[in-house]
Batch of 2 targets.
Target 1
Amino acid sequence: MHLKQSPYIFVESLFSLENWHMKFKVKVLGIEAGRKLMVIIDDKDASLLGVRTSDRVKITYKDKSIIAIVNIATRFPRNTIGVFDEVCSKLGIERGDEVEVYPAKSPESLAYIRDKIFGYELNAQEIKAIVKDVVDQNLSDIEIASFLTTLHVRGTNMDEIEALSRAMVETGQILEWEDHPILDKHSIGGVPGDKTTLLVVPIVAAAGFTIPKTSSRAITSAAGTADRVESLCPVNLSLEEIRDVVKKTKACMVWGGALDLAPADDLFIQVEYPLSIDPLLLPSIMSKKKAIGTDYVVIDLPTGRGTKIKTIGEAQHLARNFIELGNRLGIKVECAVTFGEQPIGFAIGPALEAREALQTLMGKGPIDLQDKAINLASMLLEMAGVDSSRDKATEILRTGKAEEKLREIVAAQGGNQYIKPEDIGIGDKVAKVVSNYDGKVLWINNNDIVQIAREAGAPKEKGAGILLKVKIGNEVVKGDVLFEIYAERSQKLESAFALAEKLKPIGIGQRYDIMIMSRIPARAKQERTFILER
Amino acid sequence: MHLKQSPYIFVESLFSLENWHMKFKVKVLGIEAGRKLMVIIDDKDASLLGVRTSDRVKITYKDKSIIAIVNIATRFPRNTIGVFDEVCSKLGIERGDEVEVYPAKSPESLAYIRDKIFGYELNAQEIKAIVKDVVDQNLSDIEIASFLTTLHVRGTNMDEIEALSRAMVETGQILEWEDHPILDKHSIGGVPGDKTTLLVVPIVAAAGFTIPKTSSRAITSAAGTADRVESLCPVNLSLEEIRDVVKKTKACMVWGGALDLAPADDLFIQVEYPLSIDPLLLPSIMSKKKAIGTDYVVIDLPTGRGTKIKTIGEAQHLARNFIELGNRLGIKVECAVTFGEQPIGFAIGPALEAREALQTLMGKGPIDLQDKAINLASMLLEMAGVDSSRDKATEILRTGKAEEKLREIVAAQGGNQYIKPEDIGIGDKVAKVVSNYDGKVLWINNNDIVQIAREAGAPKEKGAGILLKVKIGNEVVKGDVLFEIYAERSQKLESAFALAEKLKPIGIGQRYDIMIMSRIPARAKQERTFILER
């Protein structure tokens, strides 16, 4: 079919399909959207331009142009485009400048998201395109929410998980090391008070292996490892500084958040959090391991009531997936299924936990924490070829070599090498919660403990938290202290205390005399917990 | 377990769990978010307050308080809360005022959305809560996107569809009429040039039945019925005005958008559109019918390649669902599966279609349009108990009674009763597209036709559109005009012409000599069509 020029029009210039546009005056909103390129226009202008919320526009000013996501406001000044700071700086525009705005196509990756919604498997290139557009902030929150919901509901097969992991690695910083192997440990989280990393890293490094550990801060918990370590020394180190620390000590314990390792993950978390879904658990964790150059990693899967993983069967299934994904990425993975139905040790909250970890390294710590640390460390040493690895790990801890190594790391990261447990500042507002019964501790509700610690100010206020005085199986008599709440401000202590009164996080009784585990009313308003820690 | 007051704190006042808060200074953003209550705070303040994007906060000023959705900006002024206009007016605050901000719980409906994500069926109360929170703007776009994606992926059973429909009715305006039955027709859309409503409404009203028709404007198409009718008379009438028009003429043809009938739908569409999904087709259509008081409705399901419904099997399945949902809602539904593989009549675009509809009522219209209108009208008349309904409908159209009725309606709605087809203004920029081959018209690509009409300016520019000169099966010789493009502006005509050249929307050949229907390259960038019309 041929399209003949009619006598009615004279088409002399070459024209593009995108030449329909409008001119807008710039209104600077003075808000940074968080890297996403966004603009606001009035709904009537939007309808004239032919765009709707979440559509893309090309904005041209002088010789520069960008693609931005449209937000539509009602009763916004006409012929005016409200721009977030990122758009201003990219285009070099100021208030009152005139820009040209063209409707633009949605990114190709949106079509792939739709494919997944409609049930098609995505290939590696398609997944890469989606992840890249997430990192480049080319996808709107609506689109990312739909993608993550679809991943959750439809599930992902191992090819997709591998592709997601690789894409998350490739869109971020990748660390390279001269010496190998690189060892690592990771917990999928879900159990409060888990300061095991603060012991495992020094044990492994003291055994002569390299373990450059990056950790996250708490998202929904009372303390992340980075929060805990920060009570001992700075954790916000640059890549250069990290290399120096690792060179000196064979280890580090730093915050990974600013290192741009698998940055897609942080952007996904922003949308997963309000939805309380976590469809990217495997790629999220393993992409960070790959980016940091890990060769051997032990993954801790805390299991049981009150954790992410409720049954050993589930844990085994997840473990197989971690191992298979590791194979595909060239990382040797072993998993530890650990008991997670009560906090590890007694302390919950950044400073309280740092104190407990230091005490344990100094020989005066709780047995469960010691046992967990020795087991995880010895698994790693065994993977790296150490014979009698359990004895070795135990010896390193018992003889103070692990403590010495921790102090080296603390010093190298800019902390006080000679820090004593009592130097670690904890909240000076304290409330004790006592038992009103005689009996045994039957259970400790992890989530309630976390909520109370957070109400007290953790993790932001490092000195806030909970110090348990009892664990499951302990005998108590009426009047015994069950736990202490620490806070930095009276107001927060009051809130936490009130919450403790409401939640009653520790169950006391004779064995088997509490048969009802949960009561579900006909018209339930169920309180649900969501643990988003990686 | 009893929580005993410790000597360390003195709890004298009653305190609530929500007493942790911060004070913020108000920064008025001067933007209306579109009813949603939103505020912006800096990420460091957010982390102190313990909230993340999409979390809720309670904002208190003097004796007023509201719950708003938090958006987090980077490098926003500290201790400052950016407020959209809706928040200002609800709280009565101005720039510089100091407000108290408390973390608040997410709405209960979010837990139900999560239930659906996790695979649970929702009951009527839960669905009502979600729809109500959508209408009250208590759910963020992320949450609505996740809900709609889940509905699409998991599907909805008839109980859920019924509950969605009822909830959408109950959260909006409901019309009541003194006279019954109320008749109605609806097309699920997807075929261009479908101006059938402009004929069916006058035929049915001329037969003595009440048919107060509300229509939508185009979303993704070249013209909605409201856009078409607007070329004849005003369509943006108040409820009072509609009652008057219906009283005088037994009918109306108005825009339903401002009547607040099932308002949830418009809010869902804002999120469905960027995602190109349409999980609420049934409740969306039927809730509007219920809200307007419909007793009998014929639903037109245009079927075939290039429409929403590809096969007659699919159409029958959807028809059964419409009929069952109608039963549950107390509406008698019949469905018509109609041929949708090419435009109805020859005209595409608001004014061109209005002109063709008027010509058809005046006895000089295309046979397919006449046939469709007579069939749909006679189905409705039969449902209402009219004998020989087809003869009756045909007679009303042929004798000019339908034309007369249309003119009554046009006059009652404030238009010119004596309007002639040539009075309807169409674009004065015209391009003709001619065939370069001899042969038959084998196919007409609906979507391409729509895209070209939209590129020419439809539906916003009412005079823009396409006038076909051939339909499927017509013989053409080289040089014959296939279609004309009309536009109001040269620039848009040029764009549309270029798009026509690229898309080649009409296939000419000898029967069976074009065997390849579509070519799919290895690395496909597939252009996909999405029809979101209800």
Target 2
Amino acid sequence: MSPRTPSTPRPSETALMERVQAHIRALPESGIVEVMKYGQQREGMIPLWAGEGDVPTPAFICEAAAIALEAGETFYTWQRGLPELRAAIARYMSQLYGVDEEPERYFVTGSGMQAITTAFSIALAAGDEILVPSPVWPNAPAAAQRIGAHPVFVPFSYGPDGFRLDMARMEQAVTPRTRAIFLNTPANPTGFVATLEELRAVLDLARRHGLWIIADEIYGRFHYGEGTRAPSMHDVMEPEDLILFVQTFSKNWAMTGWRIGWLEAPVWLGQVVENLIQYSTSGVAAFMQRGAIAALEQGEDFLAAQIARARLGRDIMGNALLATDRVRLVKPQGAFYMFFGIEGQDDVRRLGLQLVDEANVGIAPGTAFGPGGEGFMRLCFARSPAQLEEASRRLVRWLETPHTSHAHR
Amino acid sequence: MSPRTPSTPRPSETALMERVQAHIRALPESGIVEVMKYGQQREGMIPLWAGEGDVPTPAFICEAAAIALEAGETFYTWQRGLPELRAAIARYMSQLYGVDEEPERYFVTGSGMQAITTAFSIALAAGDEILVPSPVWPNAPAAAQRIGAHPVFVPFSYGPDGFRLDMARMEQAVTPRTRAIFLNTPANPTGFVATLEELRAVLDLARRHGLWIIADEIYGRFHYGEGTRAPSMHDVMEPEDLILFVQTFSKNWAMTGWRIGWLEAPVWLGQVVENLIQYSTSGVAAFMQRGAIAALEQGEDFLAAQIARARLGRDIMGNALLATDRVRLVKPQGAFYMFFGIEGQDDVRRLGLQLVDEANVGIAPGTAFGPGGEGFMRLCFARSPAQLEEASRRLVRWLETPHTSHAHR
């Protein structure tokens, strides 16, 4: 950069910021970041704030990627994904959901997040509305805002069964601008798992109003009820229903850092999805896709162990918290988060910082997850039993100590 | 999927397609694909249609990534990129362009393509216009269309110096909806390289109308004039200019398939860029970023060899074609494409298929690159001298054989 001419007026950065598109400027910063930044350097801190386990990607997956790298799989590849990976996804989905094995329905994306942005680009334009039951993983509504669309939050009801979809509220929230419903089940952060009846009710609503359903079933295997997976839109849909499924390798196979997932869409959308991938990231590295194939084809034992570990983590943390009789908590039916309130603690943003200081445990405030999250905290229990035992001891000790309110903290 | 109830009417796929957002449905399919599909299975075919060399990623880069994978760098990471990579980019840019070494200006993206979509999201909304000198790499205008904005093509002038920016046409193309200028220099497919005077003229236009400049200088090292790089917006800009630079590791270090690049933006845009990354792909794999660090820190010798090879390829192909006296060609000043016309051959889409059949060489039709590409063909010369010698022999033989017009082919 050449030295500035002194005579050139330099507009303030505030003024420059007005040149950024307003809906982009308005994108929210992650509400988890504050407590993470506050706590992440503390010695002995147990971080339960992120949606991520503590196990690195298993070696057989890393090795498959490394071998492909060494073999020179470093050139441009299919925009829709390697045919071998699409076939492997189709086999996996067919075995798990009894659906037709149809590789052309599956499109490899550079993260589940990209699957969501791709689905939203198909369904939504600027000014459109999407119904979002909340509390919700904040990246989903933010992705709608990113394209100028409006997330319409529909709070879950909360009762003895925990968080449930409120279909009357959903129905009332529909307007002439509504184009889609975002349905995450099993859900982050609430642990809500839709029943077949609830899935049918959402599908019926979508059909009557001509809405797309963006089905985020990425935690489908982390299900603490009967069967090997949670109920799915696959169980109730017809081929002509407008449903886009977003998926990821992140949670099942401990591949959060890889950024690889898939979009499942009707075959007739193939060229549209290919174009959206082409004009956003132009595909996913072939060598990463080799790792993903290994995950699908050799990953069931690893996944079973992950699920068993999460189930154990849920019991360790859930039982310890419930025994204090000071929390508002229904053990989650799916996913791997405990979403709970603490008696007398309403300012959860402050509480997150306080628990860092006084319990050395990192927990995300429920306010990071949109309307309905007030008064709740989210912790991730996809971690080692020993660490969760220690974290629960710290939390219980804190809960059993009298605390004055720190209104001016 | 449950069996369909016979009473349910099944709308045709055409009707369903109308439920896709119109500007997304209208996204163009790549114009290169037709000839690639037609020719890619031919025995002995020499494929010069893609913007990609024939050398896989060098081992020292692959190894750095494989080591990080094995070491368990598989968790979520910084949305803006690893601090070490941002520092390495800052050092590289500082050495090359004499700019301040300021890591906070650089944001790691999952491809140069994602850097473009991120920049466009900042500058453009639905209905806005962006000036795009053309012929142009088609993904850039398509990325504008993806967010509902309109690329306004401004054809280059063409003369004895090859393709040049037509500043009068640029000026005339500005309307109240214009928000940005996309400037690719050195340019794909034309080989145009902006002079310092031309860069100043574009900057002046942008300043007068309050426009963003999206500067795509990814071929800056592939420059056949003097110096180690082409002239750059860095040479003429002031700190307060609204310039977003898009960059990629793809071309310099033979990493096309990796999907990793960077966006260079003013520091005050940091949180905006982070949010855009968070809500589109949520970052780039840390292990890939280790490969990118190796490319920057140990890649100069490899890059020098790549540039020398491209310069040789340019001479082999350029001299052979010019000697026939049957082509319209000015040897490119930068990038690694020959963009040329063949006397008497106006239907270049058909010509691409014909050259597959009759010369066994794969070349992309200029029509794939937007207005101004009619009557031209693009070939990539970033390949081995031996292969380019053979391809040029085949093309020269074809050019020197009389051809009847195949109007009904």
